[in-house]
Amino acid sequence: MTEVVSDTLYSADRVSNANGSSAGLVCLGLSKSYGGTSVLTQVDLSLTPGSVLGLVGENGAGKSTTSSIIAGMVRPDGGSMTIDGEIYDPQSPADALKAGVALIHQEIRMVSELSVAENIFLGRLPMRRGRVDRKLMNEESRSILKLLGSDTDPRRQVAGLSIAAQQEIEIARALTREPRYIIFDEPSASLGESETERVFDQIRILRDQGAGIVYISHRLEEIRTLADTVVCLRDGKRVAAWETGDVSKEDIVRAMVGRDFVFSHLAPKDATTEVALEVRGLGRTGVFEGINFAVNRGEILGFSGLVGAGRTEMVRTIAGADRHDAGEILVDGTAVKIRGPRSAINAGIAMVPEDRKGQGLNLDRTGAENITLPWEPSLTTGGIMTVRTVNATANLQREFLDIRSKLDIPVGSLSGGNQQKVLLGKWLVTRPRVLILDEPTRGVDVGAKMAIYKTIRSLAEQGVAIIVISSELEEVLGLSHRVLVMSGGRQRGILDRADATPEAVMALALITDSSDDAQPSNQPGSSPQGRSESQ
Questions:
Q1: Bridge-partner residues for 56, per DSSP?
Q2: DSSP code at position 149
Q3: Is the same domain home to 464 and 365?
Q4: Where in the sequence does UniProt note compositional bias of the Polar residues kind (predicted)?
Q5: Domain co-membership, 17 together with 164
Q6: Measured between alpha carbons, how far is 228 from 114 in angstroms, rounded to an integer?
Q7: What is the pLDDT of residues 475-517, one digit of tens each?
Q8: What is the C-alpha to C-alpha distance for residues 229 and 215, in angstroms, rounded to an integer?
Q9: Burial of 103 (0-12, 13-18, 19+ CB in 10 A)
């Protein structure tokens, strides 16, 4: 029977070997090739107990391969690993867990029909007299969740929980294995600022109790905040390392991309005065209500708010993925009936979802096939889709989006940045009137981010009305003409670019009551010119 997890997961005797040494996890000369192509070359890493190692690099730099090797998911072609001076050579993730090494994936893997506790103990449910000991399972789950600062009921079903809550369950599941070394792979990719800070608190708790943490993130401020040491990979090689987390963003980016890089957001060009999309009194019972706004052709409207504010649920309704039971949607001044994604597409509305692997791409099909899949009826000749047509259509998007990979291979083998560009290209084969981008740069490196920003600005300049939802406040403020802020399923205000400071946005995002006391002068429902289009 498993013991109830205590608040002292990492005692001194668990992070030292028999000789009293705390050598930690040491990786020397890790190398890996696929089909003759080297993806990792002679990479060295060292992680001591009670410390955080920040691992950075562009997509395709070798971060995922390195973490997969350490976690026993991939076998290296060369190199060696030791833990506390003892040879560490995992043949599988199960071997890694037995040795005290756990990987918390970027993609959350929950069985939504099961309870929180069942997900935490999935595959190793505690048994008593031939039956699942649910009392013990719930007690242990509640204890580990409490350690993480979560009050989620372990008996409730996972379905309906926020991404932030599911992330906590993912962490709890790993911690029940009592690992000594934990790899966090982009844990904040789906989280807002407050939820991310909560994950930081959890990592600090684990570090202070003696765990060694590898933290992988494209958000460089997170690396600088958390890491005790930083290692940078580029093209599968270790190119820089710092014995402190206090490294300038410019130095890290220079190492990542191999050149000087300027962090800046260009102000978007002026939008037209022609309204492309208008939403009046949109609502869905129990989810969001009273949404009023208009987006002009050539305008970028940013959506901000904490996780659970209702942003994604609202735009999914506009895009036909969910139904609304109040209000109306107008495209080019004409009310449209959105009964599903296809009717939204026919009305000129396209949406790029936040979960590219779960909702946006077929990972087993090629990049070219993914791009053309929604448009096959219009691309066929005599009912036949030719390879030539598929490739020609895909190559146009490849050039426009600067996709730096072959498109005749399964999209699941592409880097995160190239996958995101393929997903974007999929909805740009025919230019939509309205393009909704939910977390458009989630889990992509800084180079891919800048390329996607350039594409967004270019589309706006071509007259596309764009809605951008992002958990990165800098991204929303940098891209947008205006920013709409939501909290608790309600619209709290629309701020012009000049007024959309981080302080102003967060003040609206933190409103929890139903009053309108904090509304800015540019009221919800107003057009870019400041008048209400719904009155």
A1: 232
A2: T
A3: no
A4: 517-535
A5: yes
A6: 38
A7: 899 999 999 999 889 999 999 999 998 888 878 887 865 444 4
A8: 10
A9: buried
Q: Six-digit token pair at 356?
A: 């590219």
Residues 215 and 303 in one domain: no
**Which residue is associated with the tokens 């709290």?**
492
- 342: number of Cβ within 10 Å: 11
CATH code of 239's domain: 3.40.50.300
Query: Is the residue at 515 inside a domain?
Result: yes
* Number of structural domains in the chain: 3
Within this chain, do residues 185 and 229 fall inside the same structural domain, yes or no? yes
Under DSSP, the state recorded for 496 is E
Structural domain of 16: 12-257
Question: Please, what's the b/e burial string for 1-13 (b: 16 or more CB within 10 A of its CB; e: otherwise)?
Answer: eeeebeeebbeee
135-154 confidence digits (pLDDT tens) = 999 999 998 888 777 788 99
Three-class DSSP category at 535: coil
Residue 264 belongs to some domain of the structure: no
Same domain, 182 and 330: no
Q: Are residues 366 and 497 in the same domain?
A: no
In 98-185 the beta strands, taken as DSSP E runs, fall at 101-104, 127-128, 131-132, 181-185
Bridge partners of 465, per DSSP, are 434
Q: For residues 438 and 448, state if they share a domain.
A: yes
C-alpha–C-alpha distance, residues 12 and 21, integer Å: 11
Statement to judge: residues 246 and 212 lie in one domain: yes
* Token representation of residue 83: 């833990």
- Angstrom distances, CA of residue 128 to CA of 252, 460, 468: 52, 61, 51
H helices present in 347-466, as ranges: 367-372, 376-379, 387-401, 416-426, 446-461
Cα torsion at 402, 404, 410, 413 (round to 10°)?
-130
Rounded to the nearest 10 degrees, the angle between the axes of helix 387-401 and helix 416-426 is 110
Q: How far apart are CA 260 and CA 34, in angstroms?
A: 31
Per-residue pLDDT of 65-100, as tens digits, reads: 999 999 999 999 999 999 999 999 999 988 998 999
| CA–CA dist 473, 302 (Å, integer) | 10
pLDDT tier for residue 529 given thresholds of 50, 70 and 90 = very low
Length of the chain: 535
Is 263 contained in some domain?
no
Give the amino acid at 141. Answer: S
Q: How many Cβ atoms sit within 10 Å of the Cβ of residue 241? A: 14
Q: Are 73 and 12 in contact (CB under 8 A)?
A: no
